[in-house]
Amino acid sequence: MRLRLYHHSDGARVAYRERGAGPPLALLHSALLSHKEWEPAVEQLADRFRVVLPDLPLHGDSEHRPGHPYTIDWFCEVLAGFAAEVLGPRPLIAGHDAGAEILLGAVQRGSLQPARLVLMPNRLHAAAPRPWRRRAWREAASAGAIPGLDWLLSYATRAVFAPERGISLSARANPAAADLMRHAFADVPGDAALARSWAKLARTWPASPQTQLLGLYPRLQLPVLLLWADRDKLHPLHIAEEALALLPQGQLRVLESTGFLMAYDDPVGLARELAAFCG
Length: 279
Prior knowledge:
The chain is an alpha/beta fold. The protein is built from 12 helices and 8 strands. It has an 8-stranded mixed beta sheet, with helices on both faces. It is globular.
């Protein structure tokens, strides 16, 4: 896949890969991972779409300097600029976990108007899953703003996010998921600047339920696919079912025997559902 860079108006750089020809289809990955979350499904999609895989800011090869605000509004602004320059008007775009949250935020703010929208497992309008874990992460990441601790925390990620953790996110225990986790955190140890940037995000990322989305769903006059996993313990199916009832053009499809890393559990099924909806 070709590596390219999008330069945002404030100097932020977003790295992205692309493969294939046809209508552009962008896939936004989940928190802490990178574009490699989607690699198992790219081959099945690239014969019908120009598959675009960005690394979100703070992730992969994208910008992570502490000078940016890293608020949800900023992420939405960067995504809108990226979509306008790289994808063109009325793009096909899908998001998972944090990628889906940013995508919904940009749509809600009116800065992004996709032709079709795919939402994969995320918290939607509900309370964050396992709030005690999220609070612990917020407190730990916020400590990265303290000189000295930023460097120490960057090394602590090696133990907390070991490659084996990736396998646990796959319902089928796909060993390739270990490489996904290994790649995501390979350059983190020793990067104090990255720890300071994550501290900024931890302090500003919305922690409360995004109940304003309940008012957004009925206003979404475009096809929306809720593409869910049946074994994702973080994002249960009933959340998607609640949203489906409010979406004028909503569809719900469930991939059986898949967990958080759907592309590693069933890449063919994932690509099939995306192609059927977006093609």
